[in-house]
Amino acid sequence: xxxxxxxxMTEYDCGPITVMNAIIYLFEREQIPPDLIRNIMLYCLDGxxxxxxxxxxxxTRAAMMFLSNFLCSFGCTGQLEISSRYxxxxxxxxxxxxxxxxxxxxxxxxxxxxxxxxxxxxxxxLAKRCGYLDIVRTIEHALEEATFVARPTLDDYAASDAEAxxxxxxxxxx
Length: 174
Known about the structure:
Layout: H1 14-26, H2 34-43, H3 61-76, H4 99-107, H5 110-126, H6 134-145, H7 154-172
Helix pairs in contact: 2-3, 5-6, 5-7, 6-7
């Protein structure tokens, strides 16, 4: 059974919610061990805000790196076939031989669809043309409607992005 994607509960929890949504997208509900979700939340929201309030600066890069290493170690236990790789700085780019392109090649066009729909929905939200909760609904709709290519070429990614953006605009009626 698939679980719906989660919304951020605060402006600070985008890191853990993004990781949990990736797990929800990749695995069935019955496959996800509860200690995995507990540890994701436990390792995140470690930043302190300007006035010293815990969690009010979100999740630090160090915590996301630690979480990535934890996911790899968790995958080695055999409880869930999962791995992770922390990318930052110049490693986060889309080019012929980048890590992001390699990840997309292995995972089909779903990531591209998700990103294209997200960009349209977030822009619409910032322009006050849709509600906050419409962002995830738009992404879910695009993932259901868009063409999936399991072994895409770079041209397939471009087509997937364009299709996701069109689907998102139609869904939001913008």
